[in-house]
Amino acid sequence: DAKTTQPPSMDCAEGRAANLPCNHSTISGNEYVYWYRQIHSQGPQYIIHGLKNNETNEMASLIITEDRKSSTLILPHATLRDTAVYYCIVRVRTGTASKLTFGTGTRLQVTL
Amino acid sequence: GAVVSQHPSRVICKSGTSVKIECRSLDFQATTMFWYRQFPKQSLMLMATSNEGSKATYEQGVEKDKFLINHASLTLSTLTVTSAHPEDSSFYICSAGGVLETQYFGPGTRLLVL
Questions:
Q1: Are the Cβ atoms of B107 and A42 closer than 8 angstroms?
Q2: CB of B88 within 8 A of CB of B81?
Q3: How far apart are CA A28 and CA A25, in angstroms?
Q4: Which one-letter DSSP state was computed for residue A29?
Q5: Does residue A88 surpass a pLDDT of 70?
Q6: Tens of pLDDT, residues B21-78
């Protein structure tokens, strides 16, 4: 699976949009971009995934550049409960669950 | 989203004893379950992958005789840490996946070996 690069930490004011970038310049054509987050002392939580089109769900939006070498996870109105480590992972979809390789992620701190 | 539970949420044991951790998928059938370990201030590291009804596949450096994994049904996998030592103290997290392909994670089990 392709390697990803994320900034180690970011701050965001409550109520503002949090934009978390991820570089995956070696992504191949059949690899999807997945985002998970881990709130302190809890298991990771699935957020969203996409291949090349932008995706939106009740939690977040995922914007993938046209060349697919980078993406941005957008939390439109961050709250204190969104403080967590956010992981960007790229992997091939095989039709069954396969292992995820976690990097160091971005520690997002939402402040008042 | 799909729900995965773990039991116990935390456990303290004496050095040399064995500890069993259960992972259950509550509302879907998990053909594959994964076990991760996370040390303080570090990322998750995959320990092993288990498919229902077959032997687990362990990652390099993980002792299969020390970390026994059983995936006897489509909703239950267990991890047994045998002869636990203080260096095994960690946060153990399972995840489950099935036809959904997306993995869903349990809340984790914090193990402290004295």
A1: yes
A2: yes
A3: 9
A4: T
A5: yes
A6: 999 999 888 889 999 999 998 999 999 999 888 889 999 999 999 999 998 888 999 9
Query: Distance between CA A75 and CA A9 in Å, rounded?
Result: 15
Question: Residue B54, SS3?
Answer: coil
User: A1 or B61: whose pLDDT is higher?
Assistant: B61
Closest B-chain CA to A32? B102
Report the residue of chain A nearest B93, measured CA to CA: A43
Distance between CA atoms of residues A80 and A77, nearest Å:
10
Omega of the bond prior to B8 within 30 degrees of 0, cis?
yes
The 10 Å Cβ neighbour count of residue B25 is 25
Which strands, in side-by-side order, build the sheet including B67-73?
A: B4-7, B19-25, B76-81, B67-73
- Contact of A103 with chain B, judged by CB distance below 8 Å, is answered with yes
B6–A97 C-beta distance less than 8 A: no
Local confidence band at B113 (pLDDT 50, 70, 90 cut-offs) = very high
What CA–CA distance (Å, rounded) separates B66 from B1?
Answer: 33
Tokens 């992504």: give the residue: A27
- Residues ≥6 apart with Cβ < 8 Å to B12: B112, B113, B114
Residue B68 CB contacts under 8 Å (≥ 6 apart), including other chains = B79, B80, B82
